[in-house]
Amino acid sequence: MLINARFDYPTIERITRDDGVRHYTCPETGKQLPSITTIISATEDKSGLERWRERVGEAEAERIRTEAAGLGSLMHQHLENYIKGIPRPGGTNYVRKLAAAMADQIIMKGLPGVEEVWGQEVAMYFPGLFAGTTDLVGIHRGKTAIMDHKTTKKMKKRCQIDNYFDQMSAYAICHDAVYKTDIEKGVIFMADREKNYQEFIIEKNELEKHKIKFLLRFETYLENHSDR
Questions:
Q1: List of residues 6+ apart from 207 with CB closer than 8 A
Q2: How far is it, in rounded angstroms, from Cα 146 to Cα 148?
Q3: Contact 124, 115 (CB under 8 A)
Q4: If we measure between CA atoms, which residue out of 73, 218, 43, 76 comes closest to residue 147?
Q5: Element at 23 (helix H, strand E)
Q6: Mean pLDDT over residues 54-74, rounded?
Q7: What is the pLDDT of residue 64?
Q8: Total structural domains within the chain
Q9: Residue 134 pLDDT greater than 70, yes or no
Q10: What are the pLDDT digits (tens) for 93-116?
Q11: Residue by residue, what is the 3-state secondary structure of 130-157?
Q12: CATH code at 95?
């Protein structure tokens, strides 16, 4: 895996407002831009999530959410450290051991397809409109790609991860606009708690479809949040 700092990715200030919504400061205009994940969250159908919270109760739902967030952060740290060639996180409690095992699946089965890394955990922004942070950008099996690591309790089907495809497409829009590239595909490396691994790829017409879908969601977001 070649580490190639091909682009000068800026450090973009993140701001979490009083309502908990994350924004980024545009390095070109100084304007606060809504995060891509905020846009997707604000425009998704949450009816299923609400029914689940009612079924398990607020306290249990919050416990599960907190555990999942911690597990996801730890797995990302494992992968980031591995790519940098520095020691990975330690620890022997349940979450730390599980994060290491899930990261191992992506390291063994996903990362061998990554031929070149331009950056990881780098900010992506479309001047004046929206911004976010992608896990990995570079070359995957001969094609320029936006890549994301995902954890899940149970392995998901392709039809269940449209939000992830929209998210990666938004990063591709940003990268192409700012760095004059032509990102060819999006890749999701997914590991579940049973140590299963799955790779999901969008490219060509499917990538273009999700770019349009995200932009329509952004338009809806603006209509519903005119104060921002």
A1: 169, 172, 183, 184, 185, 186
A2: 7
A3: no
A4: 76
A5: strand 22-25
A6: 82
A7: 75
A8: 1
A9: yes
A10: 888 999 999 999 999 999 999 999
A11: EEEEEEEEEEECCEEEEEEEEEECCCCC
A12: 3.90.320
The domain of 32 spans 2-224
Q: What is the pTM of this model?
A: 0.91
Please report which confidence band the pLDDT of residue 228 belongs to, taking 50, 70 and 90 as the band edges.
low
The pLDDT of residue 227 is 55
18: exposed, middle or buried (C-beta count within 10 Å: 0-12, 13-18, 19+)?
A: exposed
Q: Are strands 32-34 and 22-25 parallel, antiparallel or unpaired?
A: antiparallel
Cα 59 from Cα 55, distance rounded (Å): 11
Q: What is the distance of C-alpha 139 from the center of its chain?
A: 17
Residues 90, 95, 98, 100, CA torsion sign? negative
Which residue in 139, 207, 143 sits closest to 171, CA to CA? 207
| 41, 26 contact by CB (below 8 A) | no
